[in-house]
Amino acid sequence: MGRGSGFGKVILFGEHFVVHGVPGIVSAIDLTADAKVKKIGDGITIKDERRGAKGYTEKKRTQQKESIQRMLKTMGIDLEKAFLEIWLGGNLPGFSGIGASAASSVAIARAIAEELEMNLSDERINEIAYEAEKAYAGTPSGIDNSAATYGGLIWFRRNLSGGQNTIERLSIRQPVEIVIGSTRVVADTKEMVAGVAERKNENPEKYDPLFNQAEWLALEARKTLEDFDLRKVGRLMNENHGLLQQIEVSCKELDYLINLTREQGAFGAKLTGGGGGGCMVALTPGKELQEAVATAMEKEGFKVLRAKIGIQKI
Ligand code: MEV
What we know:
Ribosomal Protein S5, domain 2
């Protein structure tokens, strides 16, 4: 039996903008999708036992099937002759926005590679997961699969000419508590990414300045994270959410949760990932603030994850 894992993530700065070559900052979280693969059975079977938002697994099933086909093709495995039983689990829930699809692709690619005794580097796993991500995100930037493969805190810039993307590891003084809140709305990343591209194309007068601002914000955020000025990081996250609202990827559920966490004292909050539902992230340094914010959300019935950014070991 082959086994593999991939990390979940939160994008701290730059989702959507990153698809178009603006830099982004992503942190892996210490929750993983885990896969086991066995060479057995007839064709490809998938047993997805991840817990998650209601309807997540059902809504993503077609995309999941396509992603595994893309993955096998990229790995040079003949689809007609592949008999694989794939089991998917782990403690990363199936919520939109926290890299559940990329984490599962990395986990499955690693498990298949182990079962078929292919000795693949992390770079190769990352490339395979990127191909698989296309089924979920259409034209992904590569930020999610990079976080899922390598873990840690990453500065990412997509190379729009098809060359190597920039993937730099960032380090901060110490890990910082965050709260991730799920709106319970399952979002389609592919539609969200396509929508931004379409609006950007139709309305460059509005969108170009927003993209320039996102670039400035990412550069400022990198410096501020490295200086460990968490109050300012929070303010920059709020500004980033403002830009995401303007490119129309937020929604009322996300804005509600974001306001709630700010009222509870979060240093800053924004949507994370594709938006249109899915998850938000609040910066809540210290166990006490993290607990206060998380509890306030749970009291209103929202599902919450308590996590940390900047853990170097993962
Ligand atoms: C999704 O987690 C992040 C997006 O920017 C898409 C991508 O970068 O592939 C929306």
